[in-house]
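To illustrate the input format used throughout this study, we show a single complete record. The first block contains the structure-token representation of the backbone; no residue identities are included at this stage. The design step must infer an amino acid for every position from geometry alone.
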């Protein structure tokens, strides 16, 4: 779904004030749930995956693409790059396709972390870029979140020095699910992009329900010193296919392309192309995510457990107990939740899943907490 259509859809069905009834979804979307039942294995709500993906249209495309799986992916990549460029409203030389957005994060960590480059980031946040940069000699300034569990942009700006090469923003943030004020975000980027590259990790951008909330791709279009990462792993349900992309000014994109190692594969390319066309599954995924979050919120309210309203497909909540103990106890009840996120050692991250899965989470949590 292109960005203009997405904004119009959000406005039309009133998602900012609560989802419309799911009964309005076409039958093709409901078919996605046919085979999604809990088996004898554990309920996995730990990695922020979309349990409904890939869509049936994408599965069919993957099956029909095996005849070209013997070919190297490069000749098939051009079409996907063109389609991503059209979706994002940029030229094709701004697009870098990667093996999941994590490879893009690591490529940036390599490019800007070499030879003692300094990186500034919130804490806690997603670590892939930061830990990879450290492997190559970078020094990472980890700045604690503010009292609202958001990036403390003022404190991050104060850490900028002549040695700073990159400022990492994960927005919405993983693991807290918080979203920066759009005006503050833009002001921060414009105030600092002449001092360091701004990296905006937008893995969860699709789950933002504010129709006019901007992607920082808008700053790339202005020629700013900004990189944006996006993924097919979340709303599109392709985490196992490993495909994502970066958007950056052409000169920055060229540097990042040189640092990409794994790339992706033919089946993932064709899956991603079909996923971009499958608007009904996109809408279905967002509505099912909202329903699952409502159930999680109610469960936490019933237990009087504090949580942060989320702009993602997971919820971060305070257990009041050491998180490693909670993880072990939940696993004994056949539910896998998110890993620890120090220094917030009493907080847990729970991914949304099917309704059956989040109901299993609710039942297990009540047993563990009471």
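Output of the design step:
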């Amino acid at each position: 779904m292109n960005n203009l259509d997405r904004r119009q859809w959000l406005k039309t069905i009133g998602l900012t004030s609560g989802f419309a009834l799911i009964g309005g979804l076409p039958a093709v979307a409901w078919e996605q749930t046919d085979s999604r039942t809990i088996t004898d294995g554990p309920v996995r709500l730990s990695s922020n995956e979309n349990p409904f993906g890939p869509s049936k249209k994408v599965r069919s495309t993957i099956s029909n693409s095996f005849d070209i799986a013997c070919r190297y992916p490069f000749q098939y990549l051009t079409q996907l790059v063109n389609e991503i460029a059209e979706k994002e409203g940029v030229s094709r030389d701004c697009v870098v396709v990667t093996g999941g957005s994590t490879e893009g994060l690591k490529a940036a960590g390599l490019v800007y972390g070499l030879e003692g480059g300094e990186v500034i980031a919130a804490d806690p946040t997603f670590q892939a870029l930061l830990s990879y940069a450290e492997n190559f000699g970078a020094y990472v300034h980890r700045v604690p979140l503010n009292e609202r569990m958001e990036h403390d942009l003022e404190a991050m700006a104060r850490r900028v020095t002549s040695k700073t090469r990159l400022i990492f923003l994960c927005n919405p943030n993983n693991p807290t699910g918080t979203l920066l004020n759009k005006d503050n975000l833009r002001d921060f980027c414009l105030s600092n992009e002449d001092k360091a590259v701004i990296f905006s990790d937008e893995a969860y951008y699709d789950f933002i329900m504010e129709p006019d909330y901007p992607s920082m791709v808008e700053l790339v279009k202005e020629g700013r010193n900004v990189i944006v990462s996006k993924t097919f792993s979340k709303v599109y349900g392709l985490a196992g296919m490993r495909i994502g992309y970066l958007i950056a000014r052409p000169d920055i994109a060229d540097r990042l392309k040189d640092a990409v190692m794994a790339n992706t594969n033919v089946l993932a390319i064709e899956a991603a192309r079909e996923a971009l066309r499958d608007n009904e599954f996109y809408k279905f995924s967002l509505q099912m995510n909202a329903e699952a979050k409502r159930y999680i919120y109610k469960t936490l309210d019933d237990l009087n457990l504090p949580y942060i309203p989320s702009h993602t497909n997971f919820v971060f909540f305070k257990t009041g107990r050491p998180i490693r103990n909670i993880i072990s106890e939940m696993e004994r009840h056949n539910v896998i939740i998110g890993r620890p996120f120090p220094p917030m050692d009493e907080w847990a991250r729970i991914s949304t899943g099917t309704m059956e899965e989040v109901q299993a989470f609710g039942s297990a949590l009540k047993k563990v907490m009471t």
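Structural context for interpreting the output: The chain has a mean pLDDT of 93. The chain has 14 helices and twelve strands.
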